Amino acid sequence: MSEPIASYLLVSLPKSTSTDPPLSRWLEKNINGGSVEVTEYKLPTFKVGTLDSLVLQSEELGKIDQQLTGSIGKVLDIINSLHQSDSNKQKIDGKTVDLYFETFTWNSSRFRLDKSIEELIKLISNEALNVDNDLRSNYSSYNQSKSALTAIQRKQTGDLSVKSLHDIVKAEHFVLNSEHLQTVLLAIPKSMKESFLNSYESLTEFVVPRSGLLIAEDSEYYLYSVTLFKKYASKFLSAARDLKWVPRDFEYSESTITQLKNEFQLASKEESNLKNDLTRLSKSAYSEIVSSWCHIKLLRAFVESVLRYGLPPDFYCFILKLSNAKAIEKSKSELIDRFGYLGGAAFDMDKSGKVSKDSKLHEYASLVDQDYEPFVMYEVELY
């Protein structure tokens, strides 16, 4: 995947947090040396169930978050494979992805707030994953069509041992409508021409004498036809393979010739139609899946905040736009230094006043998630 278009920290802090100046202004002034864009999200108030249900929903939201992140990456891979424009030119509700994320508002008409959090999770994730499945199915069909077209193109450009013969052979090269005789085609390496001409008549019984007819040649092969009794055709072709002659499986008929002549045109048309369909679908899938992922991300922030800070929901939610990975790490460290006390027993201060994992946890320390932060905070990268 290419470099991200934009990088953020999504941060939730309880409104009881005390700063001077007020929290939003403090973040703008103190995080990353003031080189940060701070936007406050106004999260809806969702229908909260029991503590046990919130814990389960937190786990489920984490899994879906990862799953949809992977789906977005797959959509972008498909877009790139189709030689479309870069992802930063893809639109969501008429906005670039970074602007959409920064100005995100909950779509209450699609995901109604009178539904429980569990219902919202299922509704949002099912819609997004159905789109993802449709896209993957269409992409598979397109790849099959593309492979078929490539195989046909290879037949048109290859040597006489592999290329299609529909525009080379003619009816006069074959014995047609015979009850007993059959004409077979062989691609003979140029170095074997003399040995072929000297031996093909005696390769098996009942080969028609002097029936070997040169039809075409290229830089590597001669194409010959040979006529013999049908009864001995399979034996003749088996012996030909042993001698490194290349039998060409071709039975002449006007319908076959017409079909092969149309094969490339039909395959090319099908590949083009599927590519156009996939191009349209990938653009709409990107918009749909990114939108769903934003809803899941904000719902996850809400659930985690309630679990951390309690009820009733009373917290701020900010996105901090930063320039690169180095700025992200610096900003995370600064936030933890300032608000690490919110982590309670899982965090402690070292001698320099920095927040660290609490060494007094002893044997319980292994139970603390190594990625656990003292407050709700997620890294977000947009592509």
From TrEMBL:
GO CC list: vacuolar proton-transporting V-type ATPase, V1 domain
Family: Belongs to the V-ATPase C subunit family.
Xref: Gene3D superfamilies: 3.30.70.100, subunit c (vma5p) of the yeast v-atpase, domain 2 (1.20.1460.10), Vacuolar atp synthase subunit c, domain 1 (3.30.70.1180)
GO MF terms held by the record: proton-transporting ATPase activity, rotational mechanism
SUPFAM superfamilies found in the cross-reference section: Vacuolar ATP synthase subunit C (SSF118203)
UniProt keywords, alphabetically: Hydrogen ion transport, Ion transport, Transport
Subunit organization: V-ATPase is a heteromultimeric enzyme composed of a peripheral catalytic V1 complex (components A to H) attached to an integral membrane V0 proton pore complex.
Function: Subunit of the V1 complex of vacuolar(H+)-ATPase (V-ATPase), a multisubunit enzyme composed of a peripheral complex (V1) that hydrolyzes ATP and a membrane integral complex (V0) that translocates protons. V-ATPase is responsible for acidifying and maintaining the pH of intracellular compartments. Subunit C is necessary for the assembly of the catalytic sector of the enzyme and is likely to have a specific function in its catalytic activity. Reversibly leaves the enzyme after glucose depletion, causing the catalytic subcomplex V1 to detach from the V0 section. Subunit of the V1 complex of vacuolar(H+)-ATPase (V-ATPase), a multisubunit enzyme composed of a peripheral complex (V1) that hydrolyzes ATP and a membrane integral complex (V0) that translocates protons. V-ATPase is responsible for acidifying and maintaining the pH of intracellular compartments and in some cell types, is targeted to the plasma membrane, where it is responsible for acidifying the extracellular environment. Subunit C is necessary for the assembly of the catalytic sector of the enzyme and is likely to have a specific function in its catalytic activity.
Organism superkingdom: Eukaryota
PANTHER family: V-TYPE PROTON ATPASE SUBUNIT C
UniProt-recorded name of the protein: V-type proton ATPase subunit C
